[in-house]
Design brief:
Elements (H helix, E strand, L loop, with lengths): L1 H19 L7 E5 L5 E5 L5 E6 L4 E7 L5 E6 L7 E5 L5 E5 L5 E6 L5 E5 L4 E5 L5 E5 L9 E3 L5 E4 L4 E4 L5 E5 L8 E4 L5 E4 L4 E5 L5 E6 L6 E6 L5 E5 L4 E4 L5 E5 L6 E6 L7 H17 L5 H13 L9
Antiparallel strand pairs: 1-2, 1-24, 2-3, 4-5, 5-6, 6-7, 8-9, 9-10, 10-11, 12-13, 13-14, 14-15, 16-17, 17-18, 18-19, 20-21, 21-22, 22-23
Helix pairs in contact: 1-2
């Protein structure tokens, strides 16, 4: 009985542990922009694998919609059109939108419209879910790059030397400029603080009022590039040292990945958790059934199962 009880506790504990940790793990997708020119996906353990390759074309911004479809800004170097590529959950890519020029940052608003920074046109374009585009803003910009929405729907845009915020009507005002040095990445944490990657080695954080302080200084000679928060508030940073580093809210750093990277830039987490909880549940129930065949199921569960089976005209039997 002690052996059966122990096996039961281990199995049930494994089930709930799976739901509380692995079921909520998010996959990180990163744009490589040198020889490989593609997208690499990383598990929560930092194991990378190739997701998509673009040949001579350069991937820029990456963003997920709420359904887990990945959007990638593509600048063509092979004679094709600059465009936005859309990948479904199965990894199949199709052209989502054209009419962009050197697209960089991507971001979705709360209604599912995709915003694109056209660095060559100095505009922000807005696309409906069906791919219909309109110009959202065409002033107060100079080679716009990274984009990020705050919780109230205000769009923040990284220019060459400042950060501009745009209301829903496309009217922009300068949010911050002091201490910035070619900002390349933007990301909001859960409390509404804006984090900015600079080309001087610093990551800055800005309050909603635009007051900035240094969050962390990377090692000498290394600059942060792209920024993204996971669901637990850890900040993930691509760097010019071909690494991805994660930072706790108190700025404690941990190396997340250093392989499968080739000048990594933008990054985004898939909002759809991997692996699915249903897979974990099926695996755990399979383990429980295997335990039952080895006479490790507790007697109270065995009796209950025998009663139900007998009521259906089938006798439950155990292997001797």
């Amino acid at each position: 009985m002690k052996q059966a009880s122990l096996a039961w506790v281990i199995a049930v504990t494994g089930l709930f542990a799976g739901f509380s940790t692995q079921a909520r793990a998010l996959t990180l997708f990163v744009a490589n922009t040198f020889d490989t020119n593609g997208i690499v996906s990383f598990t929560s353990a930092g194991v990378g694998s190739a997701f998509a390759s673009f040949g001579d074309d350069f991937p820029g911004g990456v963003a997920f919609d709420s359904s887990g479809n990945l959007y990638v800004a593509i600048t063509s170097e092979s004679g094709g059109q600059d465009h936005i590529e859309k990948f479904n959950s199965a990894g199949v890519g199709t052209t989502f939108a054209t009419g962009v020029s050197q697209p960089r940052g991507l971001a979705f608003n709360s209604t599912g419209n995709l915003f694109v920074a056209n660095s060559n046109f100095d505009t922000i374009e807005e696309f409906t879910p069906s791919g219909v585009g309109t110009v959202f803003a065409d002033t107060d910009m100079n080679s716009p790059g990274a984009l990020a929405f705050n919780a109230t729907g205000t769009l923040f845009v990284a220019n060459e030397a400042d950060i501009v915020e745009f209301n829903s009507s496309g009217v922009g005002t300068i949010f911050a400029s002091s201490g910035l040095s070619g900002p390349t990445g933007l990301a909001f944490n859960a409390t509404g603080t804006l984090f900015v990657a600079n080309q001087n080695g610093y990551i800055q954080e800005f309050t909603p009022a635009g007051v900035g302080t240094h969050f962390v200084r990377l090692p000498l000679g290394v600059d942060p590039v792209g920024l993204a928060f996971n669901s637990t508030g850890t900040l993930f940073v691509t760097t010019t040292a071909n690494t991805i580093v994660e930072y706790s809210p108190s700025a404690v750093s941990t190396l997340f990945a250093s392989s499968d990277l080739d000048v990594p830039t933008n990054l985004a987490f898939n909002p759809v958790p991997e692996p699915p909880a249903s897979v974990l549940l099926a695996g755990t129930l399979g383990a429980l059934l295997a335990l039952g065949r080895r006479r490790f199921i507790p007697k109270w569960w065995e009796s209950r199962t025998r009663t139900k089976q007998s009521s259906c005209g089938t006798e439950f039997s155990r292997n001797s």
